[in-house]
Amino acid sequence: MARLNILTFPDPRLRNHAKPVDGVDDATRTQLDDMLETMYEAPGIGLAATQVNIDKRLVVIDVSDERNQPLFLINPEVLESRGEESMEEGCLSVPGFYETVKRPEWIRYRAIDRDGNTIEAETEGLLAVCIQHEIDHLDGKLFVDYLSSLKRQRIRKKLEKAQRQPDDPDSPAPQGPDSSHPSL
Ligand code: QAP
Ligand code: CO
């Protein structure tokens, strides 16, 4: 297993539209395992391949409290959605910023699992929001795109400054394996 570098907004690579996966092989399973380790280490509840510069439609999610119920979604798609819900969202690629986003509250989705089987399921609440957030990443979309351009520019400028001055105490904690590890 390996920890992957997480891209930070406004990195243009976060705007990539990821390619569908054709058949689940061991190389893809290794990428999913590396993504899961990276997400647990961050820590986060969801991570899309686009965020770690992998051009494939792969998502890992774990919204469980014990962090022992990983979900591996390959080529995930929303088939149907209902309702509306406002939830405070964050993103490992937008470290330190949380804003309320409105999305459908219930979804039916389809994906291929780690074993190559097609699954179809319904879900709501946090998991439904997380799946929609991660599918957005595969299409080059970020939760900040749902905010006003004023809020988005504010976040962009702060993150650009934080990346120029990684020791600024006002800046969000750096993310990923490239960041400094004070304990090491
Ligand atoms: C997407 O996000 C999500 O700013 C997953 O400093 C989030 O795991 C969907 C994180 C909320 C629905 C609701 C963010 C970690 C993790 C940060 C994440 C940070 C450290 C975000
Ligand atoms: Co995200």
Written overview of the protein:
This protein is an alpha+beta fold and 184 residues long. The chain is 25% helix and 23% strand. It contains 3 helices and 7 strands. The strands form 2 sheets. Strands 1-2-3-6-7 form a 5-stranded antiparallel beta sheet. The protein has a two-stranded antiparallel sheet with strand order 4-5. A hairpin with a 5-residue loop joins strand 6 and strand 7 (118-124). The longest helix has 16 residues, at 26-41. The two termini are 20 Å apart. Residues 178-184 have low confidence and may be disordered. Cobalt (II) ion is lined by residues 91-93, 133, 137.
Question: What attributes characterize this protein structure?
Answer:
binds cobalt (II) ion, 184 residues, disordered C terminus, 25% helix, two-stranded antiparallel ribbon, alpha+beta, five-stranded antiparallel beta sheet, 7 strands
